[in-house]
Amino acid sequence: MIESYSFSSYYRPDRRRPNIGNERSIIAPLLCRIAVDAATVDLRHVRLDDNDRYKEDIKDELNLILTKEANLDQSARDFRQDVYASLLDEGYIAVCPIIADVNYSTYTVNKIKSARVGKIVTWYPQDIDVELYNEETGLRETIRFPKRLCVILQNPFYEIMNAPNSLMMRLRKKLALLDKIDDKTASGKLDMIIQLPYSTRHETQKERAETRRHDLEVQLNNSRYGIGYIDASEKVIQLGRPLDNNLQAQVESLNKQLHDQIGMSPEIMNNTADEGTQQSYISKIIEPVVSTLVDGMNRRWITDTAYTQGHRVMAFYDAFRVVPPSKVADLADKLLRNQILTPNEMRGILGFKPNEQESADMLFNPNMPADMQMDPTAGAEVPVEGDTGYEEPTMNEELPADLPPAEDTYNSP
């Protein structure tokens, strides 16, 4: 059965629309690259142990949003990329619960099944107006939410990217001016002057010159190949290219300053960065952006009771992402030898099926003999061959009472 809808669109209506100044400029690739790289970091709802260490994943609705599906139109990864791209572009955004179990007496979210990213259009002391996509109507609508229910995020690079007088705003203005000059240059104008055989200082001569110019324009417009004619006494003077300015140099300078201030090297954009450069990029740019979302979710969507029970939203970075293939074997050997990962965990990271041997799920050093290691099943050290197990008593230990008296060698005959 085909349902009838009141609204339809040729373009995807829930897709985020960048700001006008960033949509068709060199800024858009920069923001897109950061958002795509940040979206590769996995987020999960987990439980910590008593020492605040990762213990296990919590299989609930929030974890499904972070790992499987965030709403009707977006997967978990699409949702994360939408969050980061909107955050970098807008400066302030709100991640709002769409389908959730809310306790309005305390303004806490107990269960959340769907979430979307919205643009904050109006601020109030306790509420915000958010422009969101309504999946029921297919339109973007402005909805008022209490601040305590939404994850309100601020770009960690706000002073560089989104402030009114920030470096990126200056770059946007310069790019707009450069585009305007380019459009004017490529507008199809001839940029020529006709020298008439008479003076144009008098009003009558000016009117005569305007009539002559109009006639020439009509000739060129009505001609199939743009050909016209002039009198033998007239002369055409072709103007050169417009006077050059330093606008292009200013754009290049501002673009370099923007990359330097946020820590984005040119090697990251052209995919030629080495391991050290990528590690710096992840720690200086990706980590602050991802941590902004993680801290916001822990603040709003993890209740106080769940927080005291060890519930957290955590980010998991792929340690092998920036490692060259030539160093994977060496790194895997170190992780196995130091009993950080089991062989099956390492095989899963590399994309291989788990091994069915029992030892493949145990932490042990494969480079040491079995009798020199801790028994993974018993938790006690296995005795080495030749060890009798006898320990001599120390000076503080008492001897057994049934031992025979020691012979006096000095009084013997």
Structural key phrases:
disordered C terminus, single chain, 3-stranded antiparallel β-sheet, 5-stranded antiparallel β-sheet, 37% helix, 413 residues, alpha+beta, elongated, 13 helices
What does this entry look like structurally?
The protein contains 13 helices and ten strands. It has 413 residues and is an alpha+beta fold. Among the domains are: 20-159 and 267-316, no CATH class; 192-238; 325-372, no CATH class. The strands form three sheets. The chain has a five-stranded antiparallel sheet. A three-stranded antiparallel sheet has the order 2-1-10. Strand 1 and strand 2 form a beta hairpin. Residues 378-382 and 409-413 have low confidence and may be disordered.
Mean pLDDT: 82
- How many β-strands, per DSSP? 10
Low-confidence stretches: 378-382, 409-413
Note the main sheet: 5 strands, antiparallel
Percent of residues in helices = 25-40%
Task: Indicate the radius of gyration in whole angstroms.
Answer: 36 Å
Distance between the termini: 120 Å
* Protein structure class: alpha+beta
Sheet with most strands: strand arrangement:
6-5-4-3-7
Tell me the overall shape.
Answer: elongated
Task: Give the H and E element order.
Answer: HHEEHHEEEEEHHEHEHHHHEHH
Strand content: 15-25%
